Amino acid sequence: MRKKIIAANWKMFKNPKESLDFLDAFLPMVEGHDRDDILIFPTATSLSTVIDKVAETRVRAGAQTMHWLNEGPFTGQTSPTMLTSIGCTHVLLGHSERRLYANESYEHVNLKLKAAVAHDIAPVLCLGEMLADRQTGYTKDTLLAQMGAALANLPAEKMETLVIAYEPVWAIGTGSSATPEVADQAHAMIREELHARFGPVCAHQTRILYGGSVKPDNVSQILKMPNIDGALIGGASLDPGSLAAMVHYEL
Ligand code: 13P
Fold this sequence. Notes:
By secondary structure, this protein is α/β, with parallel strands linked by helices. It has a single domain (about 5-215, about 225-235), classed as TIM Barrel, CATH 3.20.20.70. Helix content is about 40%, strand content about 15%. Strands 1-2-3-4-5-6-7-8 form an 8-stranded parallel barrel, surrounded by 5 helices. The longest helix is centred in the C-terminal third of the chain and has 19 residues, at about 180-200. 1,3-dihydroxyacetonephosphate (13P) binds near residues 213 and 233.
C-alpha cells in the first residue's frame, strides 16, 4: 500500500506570522496522525519559519520552486543548497502557475528534478493539461510530453523519492474538480508511463497526487480511487480547520 500524502500549496499567501498562527491551530488537530504524510509548501519568506515550527512533528515543509544551480547571478532565485541549508526536504516543480506566469519550461523542470534528487530533496513534479487539450482529445499526449521532457535522462534508481501531482489546469482554483473517475484515468496513464520508463517497482511505489479544487467535501471520494495517492490542495488548505478535515478524510 502506498501511504497517502495530503499536501498544502499555499501559493502566494501567508507571511511568517500568519503561517505560525495557522500552525498553532492546525498542529494540535493532526497530532499523532500517522496514516498519511502531511506536507506544507509555504511561500519562500515563510519557509524557514514553517520548517522550524514543524520540526518536532510529522508534518514536513517544502519550497514552491527552486533553481537547478547552487549559486550564480540569478536574481530572485533560490538554490538547492540554500534549501537544504534550512532543512527543506521537498520541492514543488513545474506547477502550472510557474509555467504560465514565470515561463518555466519542462526542460527547466528536468534540470531542477536532476538537481533535487542530487541534493536529496524529494521532488513533487506537477503535470496537467489545459482545457483546450482535454476538449480536443490531447490529454494523454500532453501528459506524456510533459513527463518525457521532465523525466528525460533520469535513471530509475533516482526516482525513489519522486512524487507526481496531476493537476488539470482547468480544475485549479475554479471550484469544480475533475470527477474522481476522470482524475483516476489520468493517474492510470501516468502510472503506465512510469512503468514503461522505469519499470514495475517505480510504477507501483510512486505516489500520484490529484490537485484542482480539492475541498473537505470531495476529498474522500477522490482519495478512494485506486490510482490516487493523495491530494495537492491550494485554496482549501489556507484554513487550518479545512486542511485538518482533509487530513482526516474518510476511507
Ligand atoms: P486549488 O486547490 O485552489 O484549486 O489549487 C490547486 C493547486 O494548484 C495546488 O497546487
